[in-house]
Amino acid sequence: MCGIIGYVGERSISDVLLKGLKRLEYRGYDSSGVAMFHGGMIEVHKAAGKIVGIETLLADRRQSGVEGGIGHTRWATHGAPNTKNAHPHRVQDIVLVHNGIIENYREIQKLVQSKGFTPKSETDSELFAFLVLFEMTDSKVDFIEAIRRSFLKISGNSSVVVMSERQPGLIVGIRNGSPLVASWNSEHGAMLASDAQPILDYTNQVHYLENYDMIVCRKSGIEFFDVHTAKPIKRPATKLDWSADRLDKNGYPHYMLKEIHEQARTILDTLNANFATSGGHIPFDFAPHPGLDQLSKTDRLSIVACGTSWHASLLGKFWFEKLAGLSVEAELASEFRYRSPVLKKNQVVMGVSQSGETADTLAVLQDVNKRGIPTMCISNVKGSTISREAKSAFYTYAGPEIGVASTKAFTGQILMMLLLAGKLGREAAMADSSGKAMIEIEKMYRELFELPHHLANGLLEESATSRATKAAALATQNSKGFFFVGRGYSFPIALEGALKLKEIAYVHAEGYAAGELKHGPIAMLEPDFAVVVLAPHDLWYEKTVSNLQEAKARGAKIIAVGHADDKLLPSMCDHFIPLPINTKKEDGKPVLSETLIPFLLAPIMQLFSYQIAVHKGTDVDQPRNLAKSVTVE
Ligand code: F6R
What we know:
The chain has 633 residues and is an alpha/beta fold. The chain folds into three domains: 3-247, Glutamine Phosphoribosylpyrophosphate, subunit 1, domain 1; 255-458, Glucose-6-phosphate isomerase like protein, domain 1 (Rossmann fold); 460-616, 3-Layer(aba) Sandwich (Rossmann fold), CATH 3.40.50.10490. Helix content is 37%, strand content 21%. The protein has 19 helices and 25 strands. Strands 3-2-4-1-10-9-11-15 form an eight-stranded antiparallel β-sheet, covered by helices on one side. α4 (125-138) packs across α5 (143-151) and α9 packs antiparallel against α16 (490-505). Fructose -6-phosphate binds next to α9 and α16.
């Protein structure tokens, strides 16, 4: 939520801030602003709406100079999303940007009013600048010390970046909760941002701030201090393996479409990163990892996540249970943390989070760590808060995901869970000398290396899968509502399909286990309602087809997704979407194990929603009211 940037260096400040804000826009986009030195004074420019607003304002006010500047893109919490509440906020000579929530804002508001001041905005953020001012005027401490002392007076998770007209060339940031990442080198100067993406345009060496770290940035260098003690601390640089070219659209009209297409690469990169290489053969041995030893010892796993990552976790549960015989619960982090979950010493709690910053998922891991129960995580962002909070971290290799609706990160997450489940299952099979189970798992691993090929084929614009997905989407886009239904592995994909449609096309959709339709939702069905039925050739096929018939009998429009050579489904539905695989001629068995079919179904669901959203003209990459990284509860 919200993106922060700060820069001091020789480059054009306005260019660096604007480019950086565009990289951060996915974090929130209801208003934006920048503050830059000009002639010894700080100019503040703010606009409601997306970055383009501020870009227009700055078109003829490009600034250079080494005094520095800060910028912000907002996802509103306190106060409406308008120009007045946009950051940066100024109180006399102090200008700041803030990400997070100041929980004791009422108390500070009273203090500000008691001293005869009236804040200009409705935000909690502006109040912090008053605290800094009071420290400087009443306690007579310098600017840096005033920021440090003020920070100790606020509660809740917040990060701030502050500058002052009294101190040209200096930017001070403090992190607690909402992330801050910094970089410095002699060529490009000092930069501070909510994540590494704006920094990657200049360097891949970054310093992650820990909670209650203060950073002082000057063109000549950066220094870190402990906020509680004011003592200097060290925060060594981490080298990132993402490059800036992965942050662009590369010719696609939307990031989301680019990211849907990148899923074949996500699968290959995640496979290659996890398996130890073994002389050109398909490898079955994982690269050593402390989390693997921990998982091997556990007999119960609780997976916690939010949104799409929770849907991925539901699939993980299926696979851990089936392949590894492990008892698993997949829980919404926002619910788990406020229940009284019974945790045993020999269990593991795993957070699944693309961004590695989601507040609820993070809070669960923090609580569980305090209870001495082993934690781990699956994240797409190295160095993210969750990956550092968890005792061990597994990474997905989806690369940066910019589209707010998650696509390739979901694929990376489900793959990582499948690999872990397979690894535990294979170990158990070896211990029991269960040849059959071992053969099955090794076959699945081999097929995993073929999966990117099937997926890439299916996503080709001219493929039967893509064409049918587009045709079905366009024909049904004006339906009154959508149900997405599936059984077994297809159930979490049905939930995810419905979420995608709501998120990017603003169309009402619900996902159900197909067997649940008749327990209530079926009452909704009528001719202008659409039901997307996920019916690949798997264990549940016949039952799913029966559920399809129940929906069809109520007059709903049926979109069925099944194996390309399915003879039955096309005759039973209004629109048939063929998977990019069929059954083998020799034995009638599917070419791909049913375990792997979610990897093909999910991108079809993403493409389906994408097509409807594009036709409706919604903002696909930055849907209304959403933000990519949800760092508030
Ligand atoms: C939906 C989506 C969200 C996220 C959720 C958790 O497309 O992206 O539902 O999955 O906010 O985010 P992470 O995975 O970053 O914890």
